[in-house]
Amino acid sequence: MNRTTPQHGERRCYLRGCRRPECRTAHYRYMSRYRLDRERGNSRRVASGPTTAHVRNLIAQGWSRSQIADVSGCTEAAVARVARGVHPTVRADLSRRILAAQPTIRTVNERTSVAAIGTIRRVRALIAVGYPLIAIAEASGITKTALGHIVNHENDTLTARHARAVAATYRAWSERPGTSVRSRKRAVANGWPPPAAWDDDTIDDPAAVADWTGACGTDRGWWMHTLQKLPMCERCTAAHEEWKAEHRGLPSGEFQAALMASRASASSRGTGIAEDARELMRLGCDYEQAAARLGITRQHLHQELKRHPETATAA
Is residue 214 included in any domain, yes or no? Predict the structure, then answer.
C-alpha cells in the first residue's frame, strides 16, 4: 500500500503546514478524539512485542512485507519498522490490523503452510455426500496417504498448494452427490457434516460451526435433525433440552400439543424453500431475486438447495 500525497481535508495536510479551513478542522477533530481517549484511559499505543512476533512469524511462513501491508491496510515501511522492533510501542489500530492478518490459501505462495481446518472440513464434507477418499485424492493431485493424514486431523497445517487443490475439487463436486455408500456411512459414523452445513465464506474459520439444518441452535433444528435422520449436533441438543425445560410446567395435553406443533414446523420447510426456488428460477428469477421473493438470504437459499438436491424424476 503506497502512501498517497496528503489531500486538503486530511490531518496530514495540516501537519505539512497547510492552514486551509478544512485541514484545520481535520486536525482539531483528531486532537479532540485524542484528548477524549486520554480522559477515558484509552491508550492509542500498545506494546509492540506481540505485533513484531506475529510479523516475523508471517515472514518465516513465506509472506512478503508487501503482502502483509496489503492485507493489513498499511504501508510496507510500517511493516518493516514493526518487524525490526524499532519502537517499544505501536499504534493500537495498526497492531489490531496486523494481528488480524493470517495465512490463507488465497493470500500466500503455494509452498507456504496454512491451517488445515478448512481442508479437513472440505474433504470430510465430500466423503459425507458419497465421494471416496481415493477419488478426492486423485482429483486434487495428492496421495491417498497424505490426504488420509489430513482428513484424520493428524496435521494442523499443510501447504497452500494442496489446500487450493482440495478447495478446487470441493467447488466442483460439493453440489452434486457421489455414489459411494461406504463413504456416506463412514461420515455418519464420525459425525462429519456435508457441504450444505458449511458456509463457503467461513469454512476456513476455526471458530465457524457447522449448521446441519439451517436452524441449528434451535428446537426446530433438533426436530429437523430427527426427522431427516441427520447426526445430532450439540447446539440442537442443548436447544431442545432448553425448550423442554421452558414447557415442563404445562399440563400433559398442552405439552404434547406444543411438542407436535414444534415438530410440524420443522417437517418440510427446507424442502418447500428448495422446490419454490427452483420453480422461480425456471420462470426466470436469478438467485438474488428468488431469495428476495422467498424472504430469505441468498446464502440461506443456497444452503437449502444443497440440502435438498433435485431428483432426476423431479427434473
Answer: no
Strand partners, 45: 91
Report CA-CA distances (Å) from 259 to 220, 222, 223: 10, 12, 10
What's the residue count for the chain?
A: 315
Q: Give residue-wise pLDDT tens across range 47-102.
A: 889 999 989 888 876 677 887 887 787 888 888 999 998 888 888 888 888 888 77
Q: Which residue type sits at 98?
A: I
Distance CA 54, CA 60 (A): 10
Separation of alpha carbons 109 and 76, rounded Å: 18
Enumerate the β-bridge partners of residue 171: none
The answer to whether 270 and 301 have CB atoms below 8 angstroms apart is no
Same domain, 23 and 52: no
Domain of residue 141, residue span: 113-197
Q: Is residue 17 part of a domain?
A: yes
d(CA 99, CA 47): 13
The one-letter amino acid at 109: N
Three cell numbers, residue 231: 447426526
Q: How far is Cα 304 from Cα 275, in angstroms, rounded to an integer?
A: 10
Angle in degrees, 0-180, between the axes of helices 160-173 and 144-151, rounded to the nearest 10: 90
Residue 202 belongs to some domain of the structure: no
**224 in Cβ contact with 215 (< 8 Å):** yes
Nearest to 137 by CA among 113, 155, 119: 119
The Cα angle at residue 81 between residues 17 and 74, in degrees rounded to 5: 65
So what's the pLDDT on residue 1? 42
List the grid coordinates of 5.
Answer: 500525497
Whether 164 and 137 map to the same domain: the answer is: yes
Q: Which residues contact 212 (CB under 8 A, 6 or more apart)?
A: 193, 196, 197, 221, 224, 225, 230, 231, 233, 236
Q: How far apart are CA 82 and CA 52, in angstroms?
A: 5
* pTM listed for this prediction: 0.55
Is residue 82 located within the same domain as residue 127?
Answer: no
Query: Measuring CA to CA, which residue among 93, 102, 112 is closest to residue 71?
Result: 102
